[in-house]
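During the no-cost extension, the postdoctoral fellow (Dr. R.K.) reprocessed legacy sequence entries with the updated structure-token encoder. One reprocessed record is reproduced below for audit purposes.
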Amino acid sequence: MEPHVAARLIKYRRWGLRAAPGFADLVVKLLADAETYEEDLEDLVETLAEVSPEDLRRLGHAIQGAAAACIRRRIQLTDDFLAILTTAGLWSVAVDIARQSVEQLEDTRWERPRKLRAQARQVAAELELAAASGQATQVLACCARWRELRQEIQRDWEENEESRSPIRGLRLPPPSE
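Re-encoded structure tokens follow.
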């Protein structure tokens, strides 16, 4: 069966298929497959969120590979993957995915806001990992880095607000609102 057909089958029949052996494996495989249609990926991630924590832990590295495939395709599902993984207690995998997301972005004037926000996601994932591991000094370092990134995001917004505006002269709200 072609990946896009399997993805549609899961989309419309997931409630009946969820108990089938290997269902979670299939969902992750389809998320990683380049032939799965982009519009089906969000439904697959929603389905992945319904998978048992045990299956998520078992498939942690495969999920990381699927997230990397989505990142390479420039499909914005990183937040969804991070939420799923942290809920299952897979903080180190979440940190790796957040790091991959940052590395994929270039540091150009147009990409800089996205890269800064991706760095903030990475720091948040690192903070959760440090807290779960009981590493107090790492928690404090992550908090300090979070504050630095917040200031950097605000500074970048102020410096480039007009040049990034798609409609010059139209005032858009700052990112903090």
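The radius of gyration is 18 Å. The chain has nine helices and no strands. The remaining legacy entries will be reprocessed before the final report is submitted.
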